[in-house]
Every structure is written in C-alpha cells, then in structure tokens.
UniProtKB/TrEMBL annotation:
InterPro entries in UniProt: ARM-like, ARM-type_fold, DUF5578
Protein name (record): C1orf228 isoform 8
Length: 209
C-alpha cells in the first residue's frame, strides 16, 4: 500500500498534468515559465522526485505539444528549453531515448528550415541537437542519417545571428569528431559552405575544417 505522503504526491502530479491538458496557450506559457525557473540544472533523479516518479508523463506532453505546434511558433522557445532541462539532466538517458523515439531529431531539424520561426527558437533547437550529439556516436549517426548535416549547414549559411552561427559551429564540430561513418559527410558540408554569402559562416567553416 502507498503511504499518505505518496498518495498526496501522486495526487499533486495528476493535478499538474490535468492543469496542463486543460490549459490554453497563455496558461501553458506560464506553466513553462515556472517549470524552467524551478527545474533548471536538476538531475534526472531530482526531476523524478519533483514529479513523483512520473517526470516522463510531463516530457511526453512537451514532445507532443512540440510536434503539434512547432510550425506555428506557439511557445516554441519555451517548449524547447523545457525539453532541454530533461535531456541535459545528469543520468537522463531514458528521457533522451523517449524524445528520439517520437521523432525528436527530425522535428528539431525541420525547425531550422522554417522561415517564419524566430531565431531564438532555432538557437534552442541547435542547443538540443548539441546535447543529442554529445551523448555519443550512435546519436551523432542518427542526426547524420536524418540528413542533418545538410539542414544544419544550410541554417548556418542563412542565419543572421553570429551568436547562433557560433552555436551551429559547436554542433558541427561535435558531429565531425568521434563519428567516423559520417566524418566525410560533415567535411563535405563544411566545404560546401565556403562560397556562401555569409562571411561569418565562411569563417566558422574554415575554423572547423
């Protein structure tokens, strides 16, 4: 039997999830603000404690919301930052796999190619791809298999923010190391950037090469 304390914690979790499910755009934005503020930098066990061992129930809601709304830019930056809290948490491999199983990488790459999405949201997408790439060779290969190098290189050439372009360089640098199967693909992607119109993109490509 569960203790009174455990029952209360489960009740709080269900109440929170119900609040999210019933919330409109503005209310969800406030929920995300509070989640980011209170959970930044937490480990996976700490997140589980926060959510009464049901953190994945909130993560699946975040990823579902991302897939449904990313083309409209609705709370997109906050959604990506919230997902980042899960994926960046120490001992978070389970969260990472859950995110990838629902097509997370493809969604992040698509965000980079959509013109109407704000630069800040695209930068958050790049940061999530960095987290995924830094999780090991298998994950780097997954990004490359999803035609990621082309999407990332094209975004580097088109981006108007030098700060975002530098984040993209960090991502490409991660993809080129410890990824022998696709190293040449990344190398060719960097070479293809040299004639592009963005001087910053050219400079970063040369540095990485």
């Amino acid at each position: 039997m569960t203790s009174i304390k455990e029952q209360a914690a489960i009740s709080r979790l269900l109440s929170f999830l119900q609040e999210w499910d019933n919330a409109g755009k503005v209310a969800r934005s406030h929920i995300l603000d509070k989640f980011i503020e209170t959970n930044q930098g937490k480990t996976a066990p700490e997140l589980e404690q926060e959510f009464s061992q049901g953190a994945s129930l909130f993560l699946v809601r975040l990823t579902t919301s991302l897939r449904i709304t990313y083309m409209t830019d609705s709370c997109l930056e906050k959604l990506l930052r919230s997902i980042g809290i899960f994926l960046s948490a120490v001992s978070s491999n389970r969260y990472l796999i859950e995110f990838l199983e629902v097509g997370g990488v493809l969604t992040l790459l698509e965000i980079l190619g959509l013109e109407k999405i704000k630069e800040e949201a695209k930068k958050e997408s790049v940061k999530l791809l960095q987290v995924i790439a830094n999780s090991g060779r298998t994950y780097k290969e997954l990004i490359c298999e999803s035609y990621g190098v082309r999407s990332i290189a094209e975004f580097l050439a088109k981006s108007k923010s030098e700060e975002t372009q530098e984040e993209v360089q960090v991502l490409l640098d991660s993809l080129v190391h410890g990824n022998p199967k696709y190293q040449n693909q990344v190398y060719k992607g960097l070479i293809a950037l040299l004639p592009c119109e963005s001087p910053k993109a050219q400079q970063l490509s040369l540095q990485t090469l």
